[in-house]
Amino acid sequence: MRTNVIIIGAGPAGLMLGRLLELAGVDAVILERKSPDYVLGRIRAGVLEQGTMDLMDRAEAGTRMHQEGLIHHGIDISFDGDRHRVHFTNLIGRHVMVYGQTEVTRDLMNARKSPTIYEAEDVELHDFDGANPYVTYSQNGVTHRIDCDYIAGCDGFHGVSRQSVPAKSLTTFERVYPFGWLGILVDQPPVADELIYAHHARGFALCSQRSPKRSRYYVQVPADENAKNWSDTRFWDELRLRLNPETAEALKTGPSIEKSIAPLRSFVAEPLRFGRLFLAGDAAHIVPPTGAKGLNLAMSDVATLADALIEATIEKSAAGIDAYSAKVLQRIWKAERFSWWMTSLLHTFPETGAFGRRIQRAEFDYLSGSVAAQQSLAENYTGLPS
After folding, report:
1. Which of 12, 72, 99, 218 is catalytic?
2. Known catalytic residue: 316?
3. 103 and 63 within one domain
4. Does residue 329 sit in the same domain as residue 358?
């Protein structure tokens, strides 16, 4: 088999890239090592920037998103019970949408017409530093080969794409945080119409949602914590302690339908092009979820990569692919900075002591009293230009 582009990974980034190439008439095959049900079973965040919403429309996959997505005009941030609203629409005229990443994936799966090969095992990338790259994989004990012009690695932090790059050709930057987010999903109405980010001496908390009837809540826990140590009752009691009294009183609890701990890290790989191999999404970078940047950053990557590959395939111009790495890294590092800032403001860092908490309090007070600071937060949260 031969195709123009092989995409490794059928998460939202790989599916979006495949769909954009498909609509432009560029042949692309997606290889995914897991089953469709497994991919759809991944519980992830779901705050969409305007750019991501626009990209879903460009992919002709946005109909259900517009019907079911929840428009959010701002967020609330609280510090030791003092709560302040940051109204994005009033500040900068933009907003975000809550629409689960699982639903984004489902919509892109349904829109795709070209081949997606699931349960592809033993995927290996070959000769991507030359003119004739190809990928091999096995399925049902049979080895297959696909020749191509380009390979797009959209297979996540632990995927084969970045691991295939020689170590001497790659520079990585990483910070691993000493805590994670213990999250639960519950079939209860959200405690508020929009997201609440809370800093408390006991740790960070987040009140989020997936629909008018389904809520997602998080509390900061040590990185080595085990979700099995947390009963539903313990979780709800801890969450209430970290919220201001009015919010805690309004909270509607119930049995969790999913409970897990997500570690927090910041990670960037440079560069993102290696001959005819390109990295995008979590294969290229990881951000703490505090700034709601992970999915949106991945979508920005593949929007740029799609344009570059379309230009290279149809117009026979290398300008886009030559500029890809430097262009997307500029936005990646800005998103990393914002996610680091949000994480630093809202989480407890025991090693910084009383001085560190006073600095965090001063940062919150400055944010609450400065329109310019709130505009900066709004601009970054709703999405910087690609």
Report:
1. 72
2. no
3. yes
4. no
My answer on whether 166 and 241 are in the same domain is no
Tokens 């900066």 map to which residue? 376
Domain, as residue range, for 111: 5-71+96-174+265-343
Q: Helix, strand, or coil here: 114?
A: coil
Average pLDDT per block of 10 residues along the chain, 386 residues long: 97 97 98 94 84 97 96 96 96 95 95 95 97 96 97 97 96 96 96 95 94 93 96 98 95 95 96 98 96 95 98 97 98 97 95 94 97 98 90
Q: Are residues 214 and 337 in the same domain?
A: no
Q: Give residue 88's identity as a one-letter amino acid code.
A: F
307 contacts: CB under 8 Å, gap ≥ 6: 320
Number of domains comprising the chain? 2
HEC-encoded secondary structure of 178-230: EEEEEEEEECCCCCCCCCEEEECCCCCEEEEEEECCEEEEEEEEECCCCHHHC
Note whether 36 and 133 are same-domain residues.
Answer: yes
Q: Are residues 230 and 219 in the same domain?
A: yes
* CATH code, 192: 3.30.9.10
Catalytic residue check, 38: no
* 19-22, Cβ contacts within 8 angstroms, sequence gap of 24 or more: 19/59, 19/60, 19/61, 19/108, 19/111, 19/112, 20/55, 20/58, 20/59, 20/302, 20/303, 20/306, 20/310, 21/306, 21/309, 21/310, 22/112, 22/113, 22/114
Q: Is the pTM of this model over 0.85?
A: yes
From the CA atom positions of the chain, what is the Rg in Å?
A: 21
What sign for the dihedral angle of Cα 187, 188, 189, 195? negative
Q: Is-catalytic flag, 288?
A: no
Query: Active-site residue among 137, 177, 218, 381?
Result: 381
Asked if residue 87 belongs to a domain, the reply is no
